[in-house]
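Summary for the steering committee. The consortium agreed at its last meeting that each partner would contribute one worked example illustrating the joint modelling workflow. Our contribution is presented below. We chose a case with several input lines so that the handling of multiple components could be demonstrated. No manual editing was applied between input and output; the record is shown as generated.
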Amino acid sequence: MAYSAEIKRQNPSCFVFLIDQSGSMADVFGGGEGNQKKADGVADAINRMLQNLVIKCAKEEGIRDYFHVGVIGYGAQVGPAFSGALAGQQLVPISQVGNSPARVEQRNKKVPDGAGGLVDQSVRFPIWFEPVASGGTPMSQALGQAKSIVENWLTKYPDCFPPIVINLTDGEATDGDPTSAADEIRKLKSSDGEVLLFNLHASSQRGNTIEYPSNGEGLPDKFAQQLFQMSSTLPEHMRTIASQSGMSVNEGSRGFVFNADLVAIIKFLDIGTRPSALR
Amino acid sequence: MEFFATEFWLPKSGSTDAEYEDASAVAKDKSRFAVADGATETSFSGVWAKQLVRAFTDKRLSVPIVTEELKPLQSKWQKIVHRHPLPWYAEEKAYDGAFAAFIGLEFCDWHSETGTKNIWRASAAGDSCLIQVRNDEIAEAFPLANSASFNDRPNLLCSTINGNGTCEVISKSGSLVTEDVFFLMTDAIACWFFKQYEQGNKPWNLLKTKDDASFEKFVSDLRSEKQMKNDDVTLVRVDVIA
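What follows is the complete predicted structure of the assembly.
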């Protein structure tokens, strides 16, 4: 059965994140509050996804390298986007990511108070990426770089859980139609299944958020339609976990969200028993 | 009555002994036995599993378990976890708490107008299982009764006071006679046991007279043949001998 390979340190999988850093990302984000820019929304999304991925792999003795992670920024230039100790590296073990955020800030988080209410609790929140908005949107070029990283990974780990490529963008590519570059990525495969390509569309359009749709009807514009078409169908076990978490998904649901959160994708990954009480 | 108990354990393939997160315990007087399974996706869950089985066999937990009795264990767990400053990710994970499946078995006397009987009582949370074999047949299976009942999102006991809102601890009791055999098992081996039984086999016969080395080989072979999920494995076998 596809998408059933055990994710373990001896047979890790990989994530490649593509972050749109083009000038249009300075426009106001339709899914945020007030005048938040799309670049802010995307930086927040990538930071929270990395945070969740690190936490997923954390154990008492440290972070287990179940995944290696690459981040490609695309805007004025296209290339590895980690800063500080990880600068210039294409793929980094998740333990190094967790131990090398650019900075750690204090944030307030609402937590249950044990009596049915919520209280603020101060938590440390790691930041790897700051918002960037400059230049064009060379999405096809970025997808091409992701393809070569994943191809190289698959020669080393041909039996791994299929790599996952996550593209965070406002969808307005300036280097041509990215559809064929996306197809090329989705055609790559390990013995356990085809590479998964998921898209987070951060748009200036206001309106309802859309999560994991199974068809393009109701998507607000041509960019959303295009990114939906480029996205992989969610494998069965991810749909099962999504359903158990109360999300509305069906057989055709794709890894696409519009002005919404993709952090849940991290929770769909299975590295062992996960208590039903944890969301 | 007298009881003979044997404990077996093996970490997940690819993990070290130090990374084993199940636990088992047998009371010195052989009246209580327990197995627990710390959830992989939570941290310090091996510590929590160990605390639970020890508290049960030391009779600090009742049958059925009362949530209030977990509080001293939860405080102790917090102290152990926060003994040293934690990096951001470990702190975040510790906040959610550790989770573990649990099965505890007790043998005791039951007094009634007609006399005194030997009985067993058990408390369980999650997918660690108790199977009682009598006359070469399964007499009781608790809390799960077949291989289809296992999934990767069980209800588990949490090491934080606020984390047990959805966890249900259930209990059961039954009779006890000489030559009964009880198996307490964590999920991977319990699921294998049920599958074998559903195929018309008698898996209890395959778990006889094992030593540590033959148990390790037995489990390794089943993992290689994909008959058993690669997970920590723990088994306590209790024979009622007289």
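The helical segments of chain B are 45-57, 71-81, 88-96, 187-198, 212-224. Chain B touches chain A at residues 14, 18-19, 37, 39-44, 47, 81, 87-93, 95-96, 99, 101, 152-156, 158, 161-167, 187, 230-231 (CB under 8 Å).
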